[in-house]
Amino acid sequence: MSLSSISRIFARKLFRPIPRTAPTTSATLLTSDKAIEEEMAPCYQPKLFYPVQIYEILNNRYQVAAKLGWGTSSTVWLAQDLNRWRWLPPKYVVVKVLRNDYTNEDATDTELRITKHVTESSPQHRGRCFVRTLLDSFDLSGPSGTHVCMVFEPLLEPLWLLQQRFQGNVIPSNVLKVVSKMIIEGLSFLHTECHIIHTDLKPDNTLMGLRDQAVLHTVAQDEAESPLPQKKLEDRTIYLSRNYFGVPAEGLGVPVITDLGLAVRGDERRFYDHLIQPDQYCAPEVILAGGWSYSADLWNLAALLWDLLEGRGPFDTAQTGMPTFSNERHLANMIALLGAPPLDVLKQGKKSSKYFDNEGRFKFPELIPKERGLANSLSHIEGDDKMLFLEFISKMLRWRPAERGTIESLRVDPWLPKLD
């Protein structure tokens, strides 16, 4: 190693930010008998999750400042990047720590591999800024195995929190048009440039950007000075997430599609028929196991946008008075709003016989709501705007996947605004 290299390393260590020390303020302790946060994940196993500690330094670079969230396969943390000159403002990142059973190098589609692929694809495409890309990644050795960690730029609130900023918890049409246009640009980037099918579009997986990064330092300070209650266990601490930053509407950035944990490559000659998508947004070919591709994302997108506008998806079983989801009620709502499925669609589905007879008759006609038609289900939009929205959404809500509009055709739909 040259003298100049040694000097740079020494200078970086000397002038990098001083790591925080744990504050003397004690957090309120929660009882150990009630599951919280990641403990509520289906089939939760503690040994699969790395026991992150706030103020821990990961990969000799990222000091954990606060917990931001959790999922069935990971926990997500706000961290200060210590690889930075001390006199510069603090730089914060998001570190997603995956479970230790998500490190199979033989897996065809892993979240890290697909996220790297997306990050390296077509930087000039206008939709790239509406999809979250990777800053860094590293392996973290834990008590029960190795955890893949991914580092991202921080974002703000998910779409379901954006909904709560508006009266009635629904996004007005004029706002939704802009949000929709940007999401479609991001999905266009995934489909046409990256050849990726997202498979899991929902309000949790699209986050609003953050205009002023200074608020992240406030979040870190709040955790240090007034830590949220936490659960102390023998082998770990379970922290509560800080997922509301109190940022005013003018501090919001653009919507960004996130979480490629269930995404797959669409350019490989593979037949996909496994279950994907949130229940209330599930496409018919997914329920019927008829095989799905890019167009499943479009059905999913239509149901998501409808949900943001109306406060419920077009096929939600909750609107029939039933508290729990079932495929039977979901299909019944599809029939009420779209009409009966074509026989050729049913013939392609491995599971069609569970719900339809050989003549295409639905086996549970008593579940079909009396209210019929998409237009009758809209209550938060009127006039020409309503008609244009119905035409737009109807391009995606088609029984036959091949009849749905492509993502490229949706980009120029008359209901959507033009981006400068």
Automatic annotation (TrEMBL):
Annotated signal sequence range: none
Keywords per UniProt: ATP-binding, Kinase, Nucleotide-binding, Serine/threonine-protein kinase, Transferase
InterPro entries, per the entry: Kinase-like_dom_sf, Prot_kinase_dom, Protein_kinase_ATP_BS, Ser/Thr_kinase_AS, SRPK
EC id: 2.7.11.1
One GO MF term attached to the UniProt entry: protein serine/threonine kinase activity
Domain Protein kinase stretches: 62-416
Pfam families found in the cross-reference section: Pkinase
Gene Ontology process terms (BP): regulation of mRNA processing; spliceosomal complex assembly
Reaction catalyzed: L-threonyl-[protein] + ATP = O-phospho-L-threonyl-[protein] + ADP + H(+); L-seryl-[protein] + ATP = O-phospho-L-seryl-[protein] + ADP + H(+)
The protein's name: non-specific serine/threonine protein kinase
Organism: Viridothelium virens
